[in-house]
Amino acid sequence: MRFSKKLNSISLGQGQGPRAEAMMRGKWVFFQNCHLSPSWMPTLERLIENIDSDKVHRDFRLWLTSMPSPKFPVPILQNSSKMTVEPPRGIKANLLKSYTGYNDDFLNSCTKT
């Protein structure tokens, strides 16, 4: 099975909570920018606390990204594996990191306007 069929992702923000909640029964779920939806964080905390292993797929995984935020639920952080990505130092290193992520297929798929 292709990875894209296993992964559901959404960038959180205004009005995205119900869509994100519906994804919680999928296989791999990726919620980006949790800090942009502070009013939905208590709901996310409740959803995670109430995950029923009989109702989710056996390969279910939940990935969250967020900037530091006082609204992010502490229990989620305490019960999660955390990964931190530090930005490269300096503009040259930052640009090099950005550009090394692009491959020829991506660059050739861009259209000129």
Automatic annotation (TrEMBL):
GO terms for biological process: microtubule-based movement. Residues 2-84 form the Dynein heavy chain region D6 P-loop domain. GO terms for cellular component: dynein complex. Coiled coil: none annotated. One of its GO terms (molecular function) is dynein light intermediate chain binding. PANTHER family: DYNEIN AXONEMAL HEAVY CHAIN 1, DYNEIN HEAVY CHAIN 6, AXONEMAL-LIKE-RELATED. This is Dynein heavy chain 1, axonemal-like isoform X2. The lineage of its organism: Eukaryota, Metazoa, Chordata, Cephalochordata, Leptocardii. The gene is LOC109472433.
